[in-house]
Amino acid sequence: MAWLRSRKDKKLEREVGEREYVSRSQGEMIWRAFRRHRVGNVGTVIVILLALGAIFAEFVAPYHYATQFRQHSYAPPSRLHFRSEAGFTLRPFVYNVVRSFDPTTYQALFEEDTSKRYYMRFFVRAEEYRLLGLFKTNVHLFGAVAEDGTTAPMFLFGTDQFGRDLFSRTMIGGRISLAVGPLVILFSMPIAVVMGGLSGFYGGGMDMFLQRVGEVFMAVPGLPILLAMGAALGGLGLSSTQVFLGIIIALSLISWAGTARVIRGQVLAIREMEFVYAAKAVGSRDLRIILRHITPNVFSYLIVSATLLIPGMMLTEAALSFLGYGIREPMTSWGQLLNAATNIGGIEQHPWMLIPGVFIVIGVLAFNFMGDALRDAVDPYSIV
Question: Which pLDDT tens digit goes with each residue over 315-371?
Fold first, then answer.
């Protein structure tokens, strides 16, 4: 027994010694620090779920975003029932809703027809669509189907004034709202890296010229210019896709200058380090030094900056669409859906029209949490 105990003690000491002297790469340390950020992990999971919902929106949504149920205009969210005459059931079901009018106020009333139950089922066949724009199918994530095979409309988030399912439109709208930030980064980040990198690496007259150019773009009042550009694009009779691309370009032009200035400051510090002088001593060209030695050292900042830029772009697009100068029919976004909630009386009668705003809040908070976690993870003084 003593021999066995001694052998276990030696094995434990060897494992402890290996853990003490293990060498981790920078990427492993960043990932380890990121995983310890609980709030950032929650934000990342929410971002992934929102992204998956937007990518597979046609599958998740029970109806096409333009399908109209004329008899269900401003219908409230469907009630999921878990209790019947027989008691509690694990199979949620809904009743078909019948529309009527109040003879006194002339307001629409929706009453449930309890004569038949429509159970919530998964992977049901309904309207045909193209999954990811490639595969034609008619399978949807869920639907309301009775025992005899008949179906009933189910509106988890209610409907709008045209009887269109708000849940389906919210899923499709998330594709636009979540795509705005990455697309702006795709256009603005290369400009910021080139302008900031050249300005910081060469300095002198080029630095002076590029910084003045950046200051001109930083002095441009963002929201008024975006409103004017949105109105101009809409007045030219362009398609919704062209208006969307115009908004992306406008957001990119007014957002690159601040990032370029920060990159310039980092490049100014990195170019004075010994490994840059060593690369110059062995005859490396400027382009190789910038791409192989300087850019990797600012890459962590670019990642953090991108994750923190996305929420701002989401809010800007939501503000433009809410005011009627952004995304327009037939396209939809969370901000454009909120445009229907501009009437206080309408909000009081149809409060479910504010649900897309909840998605905006959740999406912005999730990206901010993820950005904070990345910022702390790439901080060299916080990585352990």
Answer: 888 887 777 777 777 778 888 888 877 777 677 788 888 888 899 899 989 988 888
In a domain, 353, yes or no: yes
Q: What residues make up the domain containing 279?
A: 168-378
pLDDT in tens, 146-166: 888 888 888 889 888 888 999
Q: What are 299-307's contacts with CB under 8 Å, separation 24+?
A: 300/30, 300/378, 301/262, 301/263, 301/266, 301/378, 302/189, 302/193, 302/263, 303/374, 303/378, 304/371, 304/374, 304/375, 304/378, 305/259, 305/262, 306/185, 306/189, 307/367, 307/370, 307/371, 307/374
Q: How many domains does the chain have?
A: 2
Q: Which of 52, 50, 47, 44 is nearest to 373 (CA)?
A: 44
**How far is residue 77 from each of residues 68, 74, 138, measured CA to CA in Å?**
15, 9, 24
Last residue of a domain, one of 135, 159, 183: 159
Q: Tell whether 44 is covered by a domain.
A: no
Does 331 share its domain with 200?
Answer: yes
